[in-house]
Amino acid sequence: MKKIFLLLTLTMTYSMAECQLDKGVWLVGGSGKFYSYNESNSSSTLGHDAKYTQIDISPSIGYFVADKLAFGLRPTLSSIKGGYIADGGGITTNVQRFWVGPFGRYYFLNTEKQYNIVTDVCYQLGFFGGGLLKGNLSTFSALAGPEIFFNSSVGIEFLLGYNYRKEDVEDGNKDIKKGFQVAVGFQIHLEKN
Q1: Residues 177, 37, 42: CA angle, nearest 5 degrees
Q2: C-alpha separations of 27 from 73, 76, 105, 177 in Å
Q3: What is the mean pLDDT of residues 166-184?
Q4: DSSP characters for 51-114?
Q5: CA spacing 20 to 30 A to 151: which of 19, 52, 135, 183?
Q6: What is the SS3 assignment for 150?
Q7: For strand 47-66 and strand 154-169, is the pairing parallel, antiparallel, or unpaired?
Q8: Can you tell me the distance from the alpha carbon of 101 to that of 97, in angstroms, rounded to the nearest whole number?
Q9: pLDDT of res. 72
């Protein structure tokens, strides 16, 4: 009986969910990313194994300037910790990155749906430091995917897209990373009274 009641409650909540995408609605939300990876390099002169952990947190706040179109600001804080042990010694790293910039979002479907298709474009500038590495960075991302609404205000999104990041290290080196990314986040649509 409890399972049937829970199923009916979830079905009714889902079927009554509509999103607020009208002009004048605030958008507050964000996403987080956890990444743990191992690295193994070998050469005739030097070899090492390494383990790293990266955590990214990206809150965002925006405002619907027109129906289904929002603009806002998104800061991102990233922390990478880890290191490797080489022949004769080891090196650890603890690098923090911070970048901030504008974003724009557009929702394609009508507001009466329990889901919507959203595009998100963002450009950010920032800096990084910690240990031996210091410098500036810029990043651009373009993502798209569904946002599924639990009720009229809260939704979860699953986005897929392209990310480009360029890091200028103080010693003159440049590091460019580009490729596809997956993002999962929550958005809260707050209607102003």
Answers
A1: 85
A2: 10, 17, 10, 29
A3: 85
A4: EEEEEEEEEEEEEEEETTEEEEEEEEEEEEEEEEEETTEEEEEEEEEEEEEEEEEEE-S-TTSS
A5: 183
A6: coil
A7: unpaired
A8: 14
A9: 97
As to burial, measured by CB atoms within 10 angstroms (0-12 exposed, 13-18 middle, 19+ buried), residue 87 is exposed
Using the structure block, give the residue that is written with the tokens 């979860």.
156
Confidence (pLDDT) at 131: 65
What domain range is 32 assigned to? 2-191
Band (87; pLDDT cuts 50, 70, 90): low
Q: What is the CATH number of the domain that holds 30?
A: 2.40.160.20
Rg (CA), the chain: 21
Q: What is the per-residue pLDDT across 99-137, written as a single tens digit (0 to 9) for each?
A: 999 999 999 998 778 899 999 999 999 998 876 678 899
Task: Determine the Cα angle at 124 with ends 156 and 107, to 5°.
Answer: 35
Q: Report residue 124 CA to chain centroid gap.
A: 12
b (16+ CB within 10 A) / e for 88-107: eeeeeeebebebebebebeb
Q: Tell me the C-alpha distance between 29 and 164, whole Å.
A: 22
